[in-house]
Amino acid sequence: MKQFRKLKSEITEDHDNHEDVEGRRAKAQLFKLMKYSHKLISLLDDDDDLESWIQDKISVASDNMSSVYHYLDYEMSFPQFEDDDDEYGGSSNGYYESVQEGIISDLQKIAKSKRTSEVRLNNGAKLPVDHKTAELLIGVYNELDTSNRKKMEINISKGELSFMKMIDFAQENKIKG
């Protein structure tokens, strides 16, 4: 019984002195991802015909890694926005929100002007958008409720792949009129 109490005491002390190791765990997982990625690159030839589920898994993994990178890159670039509310009671995501709202505003301007113009995404990329695509996106956006509009704003401004997915979404859900 003494050994059990001693072991329990040691475990409790270790737990009390425990430091967060999420960063170390994340690095280990990233190392494993990198290792597997290199192995997969060497296994694949440019002209290989892959099953759709394999392509989907690779695409999702790539999109997830991109999202994590851009989020952490933003957080490290703008550490002053770490709190949920700023000193004026606003959201800490002011930069992202302004980009998201800016994209909707830009799409409205493009639709109205009947010209092709560029929109800027959260990751800094600029995409050319023609007026028909802008009209399609704004048409579907206007039909959404507030919660879904917010989701569309977030997704449309994430990056190139998310923007293209939102175009697909808009085409599938366009208003029949």
> How does the major sheet shape up?
2 strands, antiparallel
Average predicted confidence as pLDDT: 78
The tally of helices reads 7
Share of residues in strands: under 5%
Task: Label the structural class.
Answer: mainly alpha
The percentage helix is 55-70%
Tell me the strand order in the biggest sheet.
1-2
> Alpha-carbon distance between the termini?
79 Å
Envelope shape: globular
Provide structural commentary.
There is one protein chain. By secondary structure, this protein is mainly α. It has a domain of 79 residues. The chain has seven helices and two strands; from the N terminus they run ααααββααα. Helix 4 crosses helix 5, helix 4 packs across helix 6 and helix 6 packs across helix 7. The protein is globular and about 50 Å long. About 11% of the residues have low confidence.
Kindly summarize this structure in a few lines.
This protein has 177 residues and is mainly α. The protein has helices at residues 2-16, 22-43, 52-77, 94-113, 131-143, 146-158, 160-172; strands spanning 117-120, 126-129. A hairpin with a 5-residue loop joins strand 1 (117-120) and strand 2 (126-129).
Helices and strands in order:
Layout: H1 2-16, H2 22-43, H3 52-77, H4 94-113, E1 117-120, E2 126-129, H5 131-143, H6 146-158, H7 160-172
Antiparallel strand pairs: 1-2
Helix pairs in contact: 4-5, 4-6, 5-7, 6-7
List the defining traits of the structure above.
two-stranded antiparallel sheet; 7 helices; 69% helix
